[in-house]
Amino acid sequence: RKEVEQDPGPFNVPEGATVAFNCTYSNSASQSFFWYRQDCRKEPKLLMSVYSSGNEDGRFTAQLNRASQYISLLIRDSKLSDSATYLCVVNAPPSNTGKLIFGQGTTLQVKP
Amino acid sequence: DGGITQSPKYLFRKEGQNVTLSCEQNLNHDAMYWYRQDPGQGLRLIYYSQIVNDFQKGDIAEGYSVSREKKESFPLTVTSAQKNPTAFYLCASSRNRGNTEAFFGQGTRLTVV
Prior knowledge:
The structure holds two protein chains of two kinds. By secondary structure, chain A is mainly beta. In chain A, about 0% of the residues lie in helices and about 50% in strands. In chain A, strands 2, 4, 5, 9, 10 and 11 form a six-stranded mixed beta sheet that branches. In chain A, a hairpin with a 2-residue loop joins strand 6 and strand 7. Chain A is globular. By secondary structure, chain B is an all-beta fold. Chain B is about 0% helix and about 50% strand. Chain B is built from no helices and eleven strands. In chain B, the strands form two sheets. In chain B, strands 2, 4, 5, 6, 9, 10 and 11 form a seven-stranded mixed beta sheet that branches. In chain B, a hairpin with a 7-residue loop joins strand 9 and strand 10. Chain B is globular.
């Protein structure tokens, strides 16, 4: 089993749609969770951290379910500019190593 | 502006040659990382360093070497022992060894010719 698993997609959605991505992680001792966005042939950029209580940033909402060991990202009112690959990132315990594990990524294509 | 700078952006290497990829950060971050990304795949950790003069192997360290003589610099050498070095190499840094997010440089595309 991969340490961090994502559905690679692609997810093809029309503008204005709501789309959700899930990510599962294998190590229950992981403490930090993030979503990154990566555009084609570019470096990943931090989209948002994921907190236990869930958090929202504009059209983006991240949720963490520790019991089931999954993280979700919800994008509302999709824009053409949201087209990218979304990477789920989890820290590898013990937390003091600073080691991060990246999922394969989920590709989103927003169509006009 | 604070950030992470990787150079060169594109690099071509002949088989059997060693090449060194540069990574510099002025964010005053303690931890630095090197990842490799192949087409259609996720990032795989090559090496990481939590403090100066210390570094650890990641998941695919064979054929690579690093040094961390200064806090702001973490160069990666791709040696001739690396059998399939063509890839996109990403350097990242984070504030400390704890649970903090990482920030990336723009990457170096290495091609073996």
